[in-house]
Predict the 3D structure of the following.
Amino acid sequence: MSPGRRRKDDAGRVDPEELRHLADLAGLELPEAEIGRLAAELGVVLGDFARIEALQASAEALHRPAEPSPGDRGLEPRLRPDAVAPDSLSGPLSGIAPDWRNGFFVVPRCRVFGERAGQGDE
């Protein structure tokens, strides 16, 4: 069997020759004495993946919608119209500032920063 091609009935079985081929592709040197053990271990892992895949397929079947979606029936989905709404920040910033002087926002002085800088309250 060519590498990467697996039948469902042998999902957990790894041919030693296939393992040698995979090791060669990965640039790994496998001792001949380890080939049988590693093939068996890899077979267990691949068998687990096959069982997970089967569980996922059955879970997807359970969660399939009973009624087809509009796209499946050849209908276009209904979307809201694209409309430009006015931006609340498009006006002058002085209109939303609590205090505005000489083109700048005016904010209360933070006592902590004033004390650190050696400037007391003014």
In short: The longest helix spans residues 32-62.
